[in-house]
Amino acid sequence: MTYKLTYFNFTALGEPIRFLLSYLNIDFEDNRIEVEQWPSVKHTIPYGKLPLLEIDGKVLNQSTAICRYLAKKANLAGSDDWESLLIDIAVDNFQDFRLSIISYWYEQNEESKAAKYATLVNETIPYNMERFENIVIENNGYFVNGKLSWADLFFVGILDYLKFRSEIDLLKDRPNLQALREKVLAVPKIKSWIEKRPSTVDIA
User: Fold this and answer.
1) Choice between 65 and 199, residue whose per-residue pLDDT is larger
2) How distant is the alpha carbon of residue 140 from its chain centre?
3) What is the CATH number of the domain that holds 157?
4) Which of 94, 48, 96, 88 is nearest to 65 (CA)?
5) pTM given for the model
6) Which residues share a beta bridge with 60?
7) Domain check: are 47 and 130 in the same one?
8) CA spacing 20 to 30 A to 143: which of 95, 121, 131, 179?
9) Which long-range contacts (C-beta less than 8 Å, at least 24 apart) are formed by 182-191?
């Protein structure tokens, strides 16, 4: 089977997919689009959004669904329906958190942007990161049921991008999340990917 991932030239929503493909030891084409190219190619993309994953020429969109599909192949999607539900909830919470940061970043009105950033720094980030830290404590170092799942890969995969956009060290004073990040990045196939992936502006 052939796999081709198309995304922008940074981590963000593309990186959890890259992590999962690497974890599965799948050789994939990492097709990166520069932001400057986007206006000229957007009309060719289903629903006008990235990432896309092509499997044997079949084009798939929606990053969360793609991750879940790959996670099932990797046995990282939960051992039963309840565990799968908890993983999905964790990922949806990460997505909500990501959107709050993106909402600030893309705000065009400078006054509104400053107000959003104040809320982000003083409320949104502490509120969410404290809860993420506590969930990992309660689950023996992971987000769900004390073992590695695609929720862990997703969180670590988007972390650099969120740090870059928020301009905040999200893991400061959060040792359990820091330890989780180190565990994910130490997974042999993911470590190999990290060592060879292109350098981008959002990678710390």
Assistant:
1) 65
2) 21
3) 1.20.1050.10
4) 88
5) 0.96
6) 53
7) no
8) 121
9) 183/141, 183/148, 183/152, 184/19, 184/148, 184/152, 184/153, 184/156, 185/156, 187/23, 187/148, 189/22, 189/23, 189/24, 189/25, 190/19, 190/22, 190/23, 190/153
Banded pLDDT at 204 (limits 50, 70, 90): low
Determine the residue type at 162. L
Whether 63 maps to a domain, the answer reads yes
Predicted pLDDT of residue 50: 97
Using left for φ > 0, alpha for ψ between -120 and 50, and beta otherwise, residue 10 falls in: beta
Q: Are residues 65 and 126 in the same domain?
A: no
**Cα–Cα dist 85/91, whole Å:** 10
Task: Clarify whether residues 115 and 87 are in a common domain.
Answer: yes
**Range(s) of the domain holding residue 43:** 3-74+189-196
Residue 167 placed within a domain: yes
Residue 33 maps to a domain: yes
Mean pLDDT for 60-66 is 97
